[in-house]
Design a protein that fits this description.
CATH architecture of one domain: 6 Propeller
Shape: elongated
Strand content: over 45%
Helix content: under 10%
Number of helices: 1
CATH class of one domain: Mainly Beta
Radius of gyration: 46 Å
Number of strands: 93
Oligomer: single chain
Structural class: mainly beta
């Protein structure tokens, strides 16, 4: 029994590469092979070459000659002679009556204008036989593609069966049960000899010529046996005309054991039981015992041939859904293990006169892979060592893949064709994506991908109607959908350039049909129910039905839904997802439309013919800008950006330019032929054979050679606009878990070349965030995590954002949208930063009631931000810059009023402190008990600034911890501070807690580090002579080194800076200003 192996030893494979593509022979345009480069027509048109059909071109070897072979192939009416040695391919002058048609599902020719009968075109030599019934039946003989050397007329009453060598075989009577066989040979003077065949079985019910070469032919005859009818095989010697029986009864008791014979120059194969056993016989000793007897394990009967004297070759029938063919294997002499010589091959083996065998197939095993199949004519021979050698003689040009449908949106071309993978009814091809340039000029292909398989139910694409059968829709933002459902009840969008599913929605319908699509919104019709669904697609599967209603004419553009009426010609619009419908216009003649389309300012309607009312089909356009409408011919049409394309029966695709609006009375819309009828060919269906890019783009169509043409319209696209938006949140709370992000989505009317998001601090006007993006096709979806360009969280507060997008085609103004966002939970501004520049500020109160912030920076202070009115009823006796009480991102100010009330004022970032500023009372009264109010910063470790208050009469120091917008009950944290002047110094030693400075009556300066329990640590003396200053203020960082600094004013009004070292100590003082005595107090 033969053992099958799926690989072959490398030593047994000698693959040479004499390669000639069959289509290299001059051919008509439809026969020309497709190249790999994009061809650009003169009128700025881009042509994408056809892809390769997954199923290889159907081929048939008509004759295996001495020096070459004769081939016929699918889609080509030429007979091709191919030379073994050079691979040169020559077309015979005689052509087939039509182009052969190949059924990829069944793997066979459905229309074959050639004969499958053995020897019909010649066998056993280079003699090619061309039979013709006119003017009288005759056979012309020629050597290969050369000139004819004989012309043999058939005697009356004889029917042509085949030519073997130079012998023409004919029969008399019924061709299937002939009364006699004749051998005709060319003679002198244009006459042919006629030799009747002797020795055939008389009275056979059927007689058929089944194989032959230049020496002999085999005839199979039906005879009667006790159990019915059985076959006998006879071999006719072409030299003598004598027929002798073949050894077809190895078991005399079983007339059905032998099922066939196959000739070879040195041997004969005897086949048993549907290919389960093969005997190799010596042709010179047919009555002798077989040279080999082989048991064959195969799922179905293979095609067999003998290579050399004993090497058996076989081609398996295709397995399961593999339509490329089965393995071609060899079983060498003396071996029970087979080797795979070709991974896939047509079910045909042709034996040449020298014993070599010809096959058409691919070295790669296609049943376990996807992609293009390299199909070729191969010649198998035996080497001197007995190994099987495979030589590629000529490449078989692939068949252009049939394009099922196409969609074009925002310069993204989606197609479906029968390339890459094919399993009948299950997987019928693949989706592909080509990204086109969107700038001015001729569109170029920037990239292309092979995406997911096309399912057998994605369109009505069957083998008998395999072209232009899958209507496709582009969302404009990178997804595409199909008219047919992906699965029962489901409508799924597929992302361009990806293999998975995209957004989807379930309506519950058995047959949901997608009828329109724009961005995230679509319209789905129940084909069996009459229901209509307005849907929102979301990933992964959370899409929803927004509206369920009876079917009406509908269209969606961005977030705008257009709907017809079931009563009259009224057209309404509404904003999705939840807007109310508003009537906008009526069709010109009041007809009820069965179709709507919308793009930008234009709405297109089409009404069917109303035979009862005597109304023809009608169509028109409504211009939202002018509020006017105009009638257009009722041809199949698609609306683009500023244009309408119609397919007419006489001209092809006509384009109507709409950029001038509705014409004045007596004028017509400018219209021209964009694609001629001949160029358009059979691609007459919208979205299957041609389409438009309504998102500011071109027109696309498929020609009869399966090439996709991208045709610029010459119409300027409208300015870039947003057609739908999911607005970003107005509040971004970064304390939430998981943290929130600022996210917005803007759907575009046409592609953008780039976009920029800028975020500014509203208080300061400082640009804090810049996010940039490249090309955007249909959708811009920026995100922001509340951080600046360096990854640092911004301060809580109010921010303004602006998104700018530049049109890719350079036409029209930039798209600019803006808004505001409040950031919370991001952290307070730096201590004492009130103007929003990141530096500590100094507060001064003048005797006339003017309160001023002096912004710090570069080690000094800038111009004042002044607020007046702190006199009379608004008089204050203590002002203390504080932290962010209400967490609005701006530091606040504690003010003790003259009557002893403590208020927390919220002037906002960068704004002056005024009595009219909003405030909250945090202490109802009695605060005049304290001579000193200071805020060292955070003393309790909760991230909030805290308050210290000293009663000088007792020397007690109390802590008031801040909790939101209120102060907790006081806690005694220190004693013995009578006569001390205290300063809240912020964090001086870098431990994260606020520190305290104290000047005793002797002028000594003491450092109190903040403790973990909120109490100041034991004092450490760090200076003397500080009683020369009448104000000492811990202002935070004003030098930009991240360390808290100190300023002090002497009695002459000079202001000094003591830069902090970060360890509770200071650098030597530096004078930074005069005239600071104008302030009654500094804090």
């Amino acid at each position: 029994m033969m053992r099958r192996t799926r690989t072959r030893a490398l030593a047994a494979l000698a693959l040479t590469t004499t390669v000639v593509t069959l289509a290299a022979v001059p051919a008509t345009a439809a026969e020309a092979p497709t190249g790999a480069a994009v061809v650009r027509a003169a009128a700025a048109e881009t042509v994408l070459p056809a892809t390769q059909r997954r199923i290889p071109r159907g081929t048939r070897i008509l004759e295996a000659g001495t020096t070459g072979l004769l081939l016929a192939q699918e889609g080509d009416d030429r007979l091709l002679w191919i030379d073994y040695a050079t691979g040169t391919t020559t077309a015979l002058a005689t052509r087939l009556a039509s182009k052969p048609v190949y059924d990829v599902d069944n793997g066979s020719f459905t229309q074959a204008p050639f004969s499958f009968e053995p020897g019909y075109y010649g066998a056993g030599s280079d003699t090619v036989a061309l039979y013709s019934a006119t003017p009288v039946p005759h056979v012309t003989l020629q050597k290969g593609a050369g000139a004819a050397f004989a012309d043999i007329a058939l005697p009356p009453g004889q029917t042509y069966k085949g030519t073997f060598g130079d012998t023409v075989v004919t029969v008399e009577g019924d061709p299937n049960a002939p009364g006699a066989y004749h051998l005709l040979k060319a003679g002198g003077a244009g006459k042919a000899s006629d030799t009747p065949v002797k020795g055939l079985l008389a009275g056979a019910a059927e007689s058929r010529l089944v194989d032959g070469d230049a020496k002999s032919v085999i005839v199979r005859q039906a005879v009667s046996v006790p159990s019915g009818r059985a076959w006998r095989w006879m071999m006719i010697d072409l030299a003598t005309g004598q027929a002798t029986g073949l050894p077809d009864r190895p078991d005399p008791e079983d007339p059905y054991a032998v099922t066939g014979f196959r000739l070879a120059p040195r041997g004969l194969l005897r086949l048993h039981g549907h290919g389960t056993r093969v005997d190799v016989l010596d042709r010179a000793k047919l009555d002798a015992a077989p040279l080999r007897t082989l048991g064959i394990s195969a799922p179905d009967q293979p095609e067999f041939a003998l290579l050399g004297r004993e090497t058996l070759l076989g081609v398996d029938p295709r397995i399961n859904d593999d339509r490329t063919g089965g393995n071609l294997w060899s079983l060498p002499e003396g071996s029970d293990d087979s080797n795979v010589e070709l991974g896939s091959a047509h079910l045909q083996l042709a034996v040449a006169p020298d014993g070599s065998v010809l096959a058409v197939g691919s070295v790669a095993e296609s049943s376990t892979s996807q992609g293009d199949v390299a199909w070729a004519v191969h010649r198998l021979t035996r080497s001197a060592t007995g190994a099987t050698e495979v030589k590629r003689v000529a490449t078989v040009a692939p068949v252009p893949a049939s394009v099922y449908g196409l969609a074009l949106g925002s310069g993204i071309l989606n197609t479906s064709d029968n390339s890459t993978v094919y399993e009948p009814a299950t997987i019928i091809g693949t989706y592909r994506t080509a990204r086109l340039s969107t700038g001015p000029g001729t569109p170029a292909v920037l990239s292309s991908t092979v995406d997911r398989p096309t399912g057998g139910e994605d369109g009505g694409c069957w083998s008998w109607d395999s072209k232009r059968c899958l209507a496709m829709f582009s969302s404009g933002d990178g997804n595409h959908g199909r008219l047919n459902p992906t699965e029962q009840g489901g409508t799924v969008l597929f992302p361009s350039g990806a293999t998975g599913w995209g957004p989807r929605v379930t309506t519950g319908e058995d047959s949901p049909a997608l009828t329109d699509l724009s961005g995230r919104f679509g319209i789905v019709a129940g084909l069996s129910s009459g229901n209509q669904y307005v849907t929102e697609f979301k990933e992964p599967s959370s899409g929803s039905v927004l509206i369920k209603r009876d079917k009406v004419a509908s269209a969606v553009w961005g977030s705008t839904l257009w709907s017809g009426s079931t009563a009259d010609g009224t057209i309404s619009r509404q904003d999705l997802p939840r807007g109310a419908a508003q009537k906008v216009f009526k069709t010109l003649d009041g007809c009820m439309p069965n179709a709507l389309q919308a793009v930008g300012r234009w709405v297109y309607w089409a009404c069917p013919k109303d035979a009862d009312a005597g109304k023809p089909a009608a169509a028109g356009l409504f211009d939202q800008t002018s509020g006017k409408a105009v009638a257009v011919p009722a041809d199949p049409a698609l609306l683009g950006d500023g244009y309408l394309v119609r397919r007419t029966e006489t001209t092809g695709l006509e384009l109507t330019d709409l950029t001038g609006g509705v014409p004045a009375a007596g004028k017509t819309l400018p219209t021209r032929v964009l694609v001629g009828k001949a160029a358009l060919g059979a691609s007459i269906g919208r979205r299957t054979g041609w389409t438009v890019d309504r998102f500011g783009g071109h027109v696309a169509y498929v020609d009869d050679a399966e090439r996709v043409h991208i045709v610029p319209t010459g119409v300027a696209a409208s300015p870039l606009t947003g057609i739908d938006v999911v607005a970003p949140a107005a509040v971004l709370d970064l304390k939430k878990v998981p943290a929130q992000t600022w996210t917005g989505k803007w759907w575009l009317s046409k592609p953008a070349a780039s976009w920029t998001l800028k975020v500014r601090d509203r208080a300061t006007g400082v640009l804090t965030v810049v996010r940039r993006g490249g090309e955007a096709r249909g959708l811009i979806a920026p995100t922001w995590d509340g951080k600046d360009a360096f990854g640092k969280l911004l301060y809580s507060g109010a921010y303004d954002w602006a998104l700018t997008a530049k049109p890719a085609d350079g036409l029209g103004a930039d798209l600019i949208v803006s808004g505001a966002v409040s950031l919370s939970g991001a952290g307070a501004r730096p201590p004492r930063d009130h103007v929003g520049d990141g530096n500590g500020d100094l507060f001064g109160l003048k005797a006339d009631g003017t309160a001023e912030f002096r912004p710090g920076g570069a080690g000094a202070f800038g111009a004042a931000v002044s607020g007046s009115g702190w006199t009379g009823a608004n008089a204050a006796n203590a002002v203390l810059p504080f932290g962010d009480v209400d967490e609005d991102g701006c530091n606040d100010v504690l003010v003790r009023m003259a009557a002893g009330e403590l208020r927390a004022y919220r002037p906002g970032c960068g704004n002056p402190l005024k009595p009219a500023s909003p405030y909250t009372v945090v202490g109802a009264g009695g605060w005049n008990t304290y001579d000193t109010l200071v805020s060292p910063g955070d003393l309790t470790g909760d991230g909030r600034a805290d308050l210290l208050a000293k009663n000088d009469a007792t020397g007690h120091l109390f802590l008031y911890a801040l909790n939101g917008t209120r102060l907790e009950a006081k806690v005694l944290v220190a004693e013995g501070l009578k006569g001390y002047r205290l300063t809240g110094a912020r964090d001086l030693n870098g431990d994260g807690r606020g520190d305290l400075l104290g000047r005793d009556p002797a002028g000594k300066l003491w450092f109190y580090a903040g403790g973990a329990d909120g109490k100041p640590a034991a004092p450490v003396q760090i200076g003397t002579g500080w009683n020369i200053f009448n104000a000492v203020v811990g202002v935070g960082d004003i030098t930009g080194d991240g360390k808290s600094d100190l300023v002090a004013r002497d009695t002459s009004g000079v202001l000094w800076r003591y830069a902090g070292r970060g360890n509770g100590r200071f650098e030597a003082r530096v004078k930074i200003g005069d005239g600071w005595g104008a302030y009654a107090s500094l804090s």
